[in-house]
Structures are given as structure tokens and as C-alpha cells.
């Protein structure tokens, strides 16, 4: 239960600071740079927020399901660790432009690549083109990427 409260708190913080921390072009530039070298996340927790076209949320969730399948079926133990520490939240209310925000809540695995489609390319190469097209058709923009150290776990007593 305490993990849920930490997740809810982290989500509230990300939503509150998304516009101030990295908005529009800055978030897109950061994501583009990560995709060139792979999306390697650091820190105790990473929060990655993307906007998805409102009529394409089912398509995006289909891609997420295949990413999950690829992570879980991988023979690479690093991929299984990624699956264990990666959750995705769909925000209840649309953003002002009508898109739907999804927040990836990740406990990063050191030096692991979190490029969304990379795991599909590795595990299901015959689906690569179809999944890429589905993803690109659903994707609207990167909104925020933040990672760092947990400075306070409210569920734990003072030592």
C-alpha cells in the first residue's frame, strides 16, 4: 500500500511540474537525443510522460502490451528486471489540447535501454514495422522526462 502512495505522490508532482520542468520543445529534444543513443534512465525513479492522440489510446496500449510481452519473454535478465520495475499510468482527464497523457513510472535498471520499441525489435522482429507504424500513429509528443533520487520515503520511520 505504501508503494501506491509513493506512486500517487510522484504522479502528482510530475503533473504539477510537467509544464515548468520540461515543456514542449525541450522535452522533445531530450527524448530525441535519448533515442539516438538509447533511452538510458538514472536515479531511483524515472517519470516519463507522453501525450497520445485521443482516438489512438487503444493502439498505444496495444504497443505497450507487446513491449510488456517482449520484456517478460526475453532471455535477457536485464529485460525481466525492466519489466518488474516499469508501470504505466493513464491520466484520467484529457490535456488542454485533447491528447491523453501516459506516465511511465520506472525504477531504472542501470545502463538498460528504455527505448519503447527496442524490445519489440529484439523479441518480435517480424512485428517491428507494424508496431512502429501503430506507435507513430498514436504518438503526439513527449511532455516530460524526469529522474532522480528519492529523498524521502514517507512510509518509513525516521532511523
Describe the structure.
By secondary structure, this protein is α+β, with helices and mostly antiparallel strands. The protein has a single domain (2-148), classed as Alpha-Beta Plaits (2-Layer Sandwich). 48% of the residues lie in helices and 19% in strands. It has six helices and four strands. The protein has helices spanning 2-21, 24-37, 57-73, 77-84, 118-123, 128-138, and strands at 45-52, 86-90, 100-106, 139-148. It has a four-stranded antiparallel sheet. Residues 12-23 have low confidence and may be disordered.
TL;DR of this structure?
The chain has 159 residues and is of the alpha+beta class.
What descriptors fit this protein?
159 residues; alpha+beta; Alpha-Beta Plaits; four-stranded antiparallel β-sheet; 6 helices
Distance between the termini: 21 Å
Biggest beta sheet attributes? 4 strands, antiparallel
User: What's the tally of helices?
Assistant: 6
Helix and strand content put the structural class at alpha+beta
CATH topology: Alpha-Beta Plaits
Q: Give the uncertain stretches in residue-range form.
A: 12-23
Can you list the strand order of the major beta sheet? Answer: 2-3-1-4
Secondary structure: number of strands: 4
Q: Provide the CATH architecture.
A: 2-Layer Sandwich
Strand content: 15-25%
Tell me the count of domains.
1
Shape: globular
SSE order, one letter for each helix or strand:
HHEHHEEHHE
CATH class: Alpha Beta
Mean pLDDT: 85
Helicity, as a percent range: 40-55%
Cα-based radius of gyration, to the nearest Å: 16 Å
Oligomer classification: single chain
Amino acid at each position: 500500500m505504501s508503494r501506491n502512495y509513493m506512486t500517487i505522490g510522484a504522479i502528482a508532482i510530475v503533473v504539477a511540474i510537467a509544464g515548468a520542468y520540461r515543456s514542449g520543445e525541450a522535452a522533445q529534444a531530450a527524448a530525441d537525443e535519448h533515442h539516438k543513443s538509447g533511452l538510458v534512465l538514472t536515479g531511483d525513479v524515472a517519470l516519463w510522460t507522453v501525450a497520445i492522440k485521443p482516438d489512438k489510446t487503444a493502439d498505444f496500449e496495444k504497443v505497450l502490451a507487446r513491449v510488456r510481452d517482449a520484456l517478460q519473454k526475453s532471455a535477457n535478465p536485464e529485460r525481466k528486471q525492466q519489466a518488474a520495475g516499469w508501470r504505466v499510468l493513464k491520466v484520467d482527464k484529457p490535456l488542454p489540447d485533447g491528447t491523453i497523457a501516459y506516465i511511465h513510472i520506472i525504477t531504472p535498471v542501470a545502463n538498460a535501454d528504455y527505448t519503447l520499441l527496442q524490445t519489440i525489435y529484439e523479441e518480435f522482429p517480424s512485428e517491428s514495422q507494424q508496431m512502429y507504424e501503430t506507435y507513430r500513429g498514436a504518438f503526439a509528443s513527449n511532455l516530460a522526462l524526469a529522474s532522480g533520487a528519492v529523498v524521502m520515503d514517507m512510509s518509513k520511520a525516521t532511523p
